[in-house]
Amino acid sequence: MNYQPKLNRYDDMEYRKCGNSGLKVPAISLGLYRNFGEVESYQTAKKMVQTAFDLGITHFDLANNYGEPSGSAEETFGKILHKELSGYRDEVLISTKAGYDMWPGPYGDFGSRKYMLASLDQSLTRLGLDYIDIYYSHRYDPETPIEETVGALDTVVKQGKALYVGVSNYPSDVTQQAAKLFRELKTPFIVHQPQYSMFLRGAEGDLFPVLEEEGLGAIVYQPLYQGLLTTKYQNGIPSDSRVAKKVDSISEDQVTKESLEQVKRLKVVADQRNQSVAQLALSWVLRNRTVASALIGASRPEQVEENVKALANLDFSDEELANIDEILTK
Q: Above 80 in pLDDT, residue 254?
């Protein structure tokens, strides 16, 4: 039977303006970093995207190197989009990025004009699309003039290959410098994608104030800190966890007694709010007015459903926030 999206899919999702732009993004977005590669189950990937769309998640976040092997997440999503969501392209927001190692030689990495333009052409081919909604510079390249990277992003908009542009993992001062250059070029630069969670709050220092000043939205990744902000690790390391699988961005060393104790105490707060720890962690990052959306990863459709339930309780009392701050500073 052909997939038919739910008619009420937009009823319960919250949509937020991305900075000062006119673009609205869902408060929860789906990241395709893991579990959408060639080596993963297509049926599971398809079901996760369908579940997300039925829940009002319209934003799907990719990068050129996502999936195993690199690029396969874009291919998988392109297949899902054309086979399962045919006719709904204008109802979804698709982003991709370039900045990390993608192909051999000196032109397959970082932020040169040659790499940024070639990478987007390759991404569009893998996705089977003529344009992308948001194209990001995935990381700051200190060896390439910022004017060159900004110029490349401006070019893809003028070519009609991207509607908006953004940066990810950029320091605050370079973000501000880029914003000035984009303004001069009249490029629709609308978003920064930083890492942000209860366990990684660095963005609150310099970055978020800059985003506020420049009228940029934040779409934050790893709001659950690779699953550490759940109860998954309270009784040891599960065999199907990212730690056990030795995913490159998380290790057993990060599962400390201190972090486990913090999660245990956060669960008390979550229980009082009728939330899981994961739902609490998502609600907490979304409390920040600079955050337009929190990117979740998932390996099962049920995880998408559970995470979206965080939106049922986004309000925090001053007492709750003070309690959480006290827990996180221990």
A: no
Which residue range(s) make up the domain with 117? 15-233+277-315
- Could you tell me if 13 and 57 are in contact, meaning their C-beta atoms sit under 8 angstroms apart? yes
pLDDT tens-digit profile of 85-101?
A: 999 999 999 999 999 99
Phi first, then psi: give them for residue 313, nearest 5 degrees: -145, 85
Strands (E), the chain: 15-17, 24-26, 28-31, 59-61, 93-98, 132-137, 162-168, 189-193, 217-220, 291-296
Q: What is the pTM of this model?
A: 0.95
- Where is average pLDDT lowest: 204-218, 229-243, 278-292? 229-243
* HEC letters along 52-102: HHHCCCCEEECCCCCCCCCCHHHHHHHHHHHHCCCCCHHHCEEEEEECCCC
Whether 251 contacts 241, CB under 8 Å: no
Q: In the structure encoding, which two tokens stand for residue 236, read together?
A: 């040891």
Helices (H) and strands (E) in the chain, counts: 10, 10
Give the type of residue at 60: F
Q: Cα separations (Å) of 177 from 140, 149, 157, 170, 217?
A: 12, 12, 19, 11, 16
3-state secondary structure of 307: helix
CATH number at residue 143: 3.20.20.100
Angle at which helices 113-127 and 146-158 pack, to 10 degrees?
40
Domains contained in the chain, number: 1
Amino acid found at 296: I
Is residue 90 in a domain?
yes
